[in-house]
Structures are given as C-alpha cells and as structure tokens.
Amino acid sequence: PNTQSVFVQHSLHIERPIELVTAALLNGPRKWFPRITEDGSAAVGPSVAGVGLRKKVTVTIGEPVTGGSWIEVPVTWHASSIRKMFPVMTGTVELAPVDARVTRLTVCGMYEPPFGRLGKHLDDALMHRVAEATVRELACSIAKRLETARAPRQRVY
C-alpha cells in the first residue's frame, strides 16, 4: 500500500529588503545552505538540548525560479547512508517581500515515510516532529546566513 506524502514548512522574517536577500541567495548554495560541502553533502537535523542531532545527507539544489517579486530554489536531499531508513525530502527555499524592509523566508518540503503503514505510524508518533524541527533549524540557519550577507559593493567612478 502506498503511504501519503507528508508536508512540513517553516517561515520567518528577515529584516532585510528582498533585493539584498535575493542577491545573497543567488550567490550560490555554499553561501546560504548550512554545512554544505563542495560535493553537495551536508548535515541536517535539529538540536535537542543544545546537541545537534544531524544526519549526513546528499543535497541537490535546483535552478532558482523567479516570479515577479518572489524567488524559490528547489532543494532535495536524501540520506548518504542507510537510505532505505530515511525519506527523501523534496522542497523549496522561498523568498517573498513582506514590505520594503522585510523579507519572508519559507522552507518547505514533502517526504514519504519509509516502511509503508508502519512508517506512517512511526511518522505520526515521532518522525514528523523530527522533520518539522529539521526544517525549522534549516530555515533559521539559512535566515542567519542571508541576514548577514553583504550587499554587492557599488562601484564609485
């Protein structure tokens, strides 16, 4: 039997104009995706009592898509090891203006719990909370990186 996909999302505000945050996002994933390496591996996961519960994953970052004043970047990741035990997460990192000085960052994704019905019960009991915490931690980490990004210097002639 096919299990249903599960949706997770976390949004927050960045106190920077959309143009600045978009420029930082377009600077490449190494500038904004936390703990990502040259080969596309990263460690994702929440912190519990100050201890990072991170899983090594392989991340694929797609081409940015823009529409008017918003931008989204497709992101997919899967566990680097024991892949059958961990779901593939497919989602986006989205930026949209709130006003002239504030940008909303949303990280969202879908995954299908492994192990069929048993996996769905495990997801309902525990794993969904871990997925939500992982997406929240990822959104907060990305926001920090985008907030501190410098605007490209204007040349003065």
For this entry, give a set of tags.
157 residues; alpha+beta; seven-stranded antiparallel β-sheet; two-stranded antiparallel ribbon; 9 strands; 28% helix; globular
Question: Would you give an account of this structure?
Answer:
- The longest helix has 32 residues, at 116-147.
- The protein is α+β, with helices and mostly antiparallel strands and 157 residues long.
- The chain starts with 5 loop residues before the first strand and ends in a 10-residue tail after the last helix.
- The strands form two sheets. Strands 1, 2, 5, 6, 7, 8 and 9 form a seven-stranded antiparallel β-sheet that branches.
- It contains three helices and nine strands, in the order βααββββββββα.
- Helix content is 28%, strand content 35%.
- It is globular.
- It has helices spanning 18-25, 29-32, 116-147; strands at 6-14, 41-44, 47-48, 51-52, 55-61, 65-67, 70-79, 89-97, 103-111.
